[in-house]
Amino acid sequence: MADMRNIVILTGAGISAESGIDTFRDAGGLWEQHKVEDVATPEAFERDPDLVLRFYDMRREAIQAKQPNAAHEALAKLDAAWDGELLIVTQNVDDLHERAGASRVLHMHGTHLNAWCTACDMRTKWTGPMLDRPACPECGERALRPDVVWFGEMPYEMDRIYASLRKADLFVSIGTSGAVYPAAGFVQEAREMRVRTLELNLEASMGSRWFHESRHGPATQLVPQWVDEMLGG
Ligand code: OAD
């Protein structure tokens, strides 16, 4: 991988699993505990806002008690040391990449730690609950919602992601099942653009066959190993 300069890294719930945050589709995962259509769609929010806000209040509180693991830390180390372009595109709504020290991070599915005011469109850092309908610090309306992308909504910053993929020499996918588009399609787009592709996942994913190389194991082992390879350590 010595000739690699520009890197796009896609991360999913698997990278935060060893920090104690449930994934979505593994046994006992979040989508076994809750129905997507009850808590993660704009229709659900319209139908039963209390249920949706309570679900996200719980998740927001839970992630703040978790800590980054060795995989987040290794990516932060790569981010700090890498001279070429690098973008960590995460589907995760936790802030563990940032807390590990990474700065080139894009949250394509939003973040638990932002509130989005549907009245004035402002986004504000938010760590507390929303169930009690707090006022927007900007406009005063009680119209805040979690700044997360729900099913049926458009993920954030797709133009920037595709622009980075076009310039990439290497695309690496970490801890994601390949079940949710558009992220699941990045590997195919990368292949079409002749970008080298590598998957690091606990087990074979739905997209494994698209990758030039697929390594299986826990992120806390695979990611530090791969980062050491990249940094020549
Ligand atoms: P999933 O729950 O679909 O997949 C998690 C993947 O991580 C699986 O392939 C696991 O095998 C793998 N995994 C589990 N533990 C791991 C570990 N310790 N090390 C490495 N890999 C591990 O989660 P995502 O692919 O992130 O979207 O899900 C994608 C999107 O679906 C989420 O962003 C969310 C969800 O619905 C929205 O809410 C819009």
Automatic annotation (TrEMBL):
The keyword Protein biosynthesis does not apply. Its EC number is 2.3.1.286. Its main location: cytoplasm. Keywords: Cytoplasm, Metal-binding, NAD, Transferase, Zinc. Zn(2+) binds at C117, C120, C136, C139. Substrate binds at Y56, R59. It catalyses: N(6)-acetyl-L-lysyl-[protein] + NAD(+) + H2O = 2''-O-acetyl-ADP-D-ribose + nicotinamide + L-lysyl-[protein]; N(6)-succinyl-L-lysyl-[protein] + NAD(+) + H2O = 2''-O-succinyl-ADP-D-ribose + nicotinamide + L-lysyl-[protein]. NAD(+) binds at residues 12-31, 91-94, 175-177, 201-203, 219. It is found in: Cytoplasm. Signal peptide: none annotated. Binds 1 zinc ion per subunit. The active site is at H109. InterPro entries: DHS-like_NAD/FAD-binding_dom, NAD-dep_sirtuin_deacylases, Sirtuin, Sirtuin_cat_small_dom_sf, Sirtuin_class_III, Ssirtuin_cat_dom. Its cofactor is Zn(2+). The keyword Transferase applies. It comes from the Bacteria. Residues 1-233 form the Deacetylase sirtuin-type domain. Pfam families: SIR2. NAD-dependent lysine deacetylase and desuccinylase that specifically removes acetyl and succinyl groups on target proteins. Modulates the activities of several proteins which are inactive in their acylated form. 2 residues (Tyr-56 and Arg-59) present in a large hydrophobic pocket are probably involved in substrate specificity. They are important for desuccinylation activity, but dispensable for deacetylation activity. Belongs to the sirtuin family. Class III subfamily. This is NAD-dependent protein deacylase. It comes from Qipengyuania citrea.
